[in-house]
């Protein structure tokens, strides 16, 4: 269902008419800044892209927060590996540990350096994810295929991507249909029954999806398919002067800030 909601937002947002190349170029420039700049600039990128994606494009704030929250959840799962170090007894005093827990002859240690690294990584992840979400939620996949073609991505790779994208929806629809049919027959009641029904769904899902794939293949051949899946023509569009000026000024200010602030590239 999340996939369908993303697809719906990409076609129904208020920035849909802007050229896909302009949106991708804007996001790519901010992605480079988000990767190289410090936490202050990264926080500014998160806030700025929130205004573009939620306020300007009209993407639901709850959905956007949930998307960023899921990314943050994966970060939190990896946080213990970033923060906690295992050291022999007595080594923590040498390393300057901020937090220390003794377990036998070993110590679990959290250093100031590790904490600062975790904070910087969090801001970088949020900023980079905001760039990707801006493109995903405001640009339909069909337009992204045109951008990839302009970037000289091989035709074979593009066709594989188109087929995979189509079958994501086909797989989702088939899974929902099978699940609803099982529920109507009294399935998924109790832990043991749920495990058995899930295994049955997985087996039937594969066979049903392959059957639909064969039907889709026969349909392509019947329509005279000849070695290339053609894209629908891209809709022409222009970027309003106000948005263009804001984008260039924002990127320039962020770059200048990253160059001059303490801890920046030139400091």
Automatic annotation (TrEMBL):
Any matching Pfam family: CbiQ
tRNA-binding in keyword set: no
Keywords: Cell membrane, Membrane, Transmembrane, Transmembrane helix
GO cellular component, one term: ATP-binding cassette (ABC) transporter complex
InterPro entries: ABC/ECF_trnsptr_transmembrane, Cobalt_transport_CbiQ, ECF_CbiQ
Segments traversing the membrane: 26-51, 63-83, 121-142, 163-181, 247-266
Membrane topology: Multi-pass membrane protein
GO biological process, one term: cobalt ion transport
Compartments, record wording: Cell membrane
NCBIfam families: ECF_T_CbiQ
Name of protein: Cobalt/nickel transport system permease protein
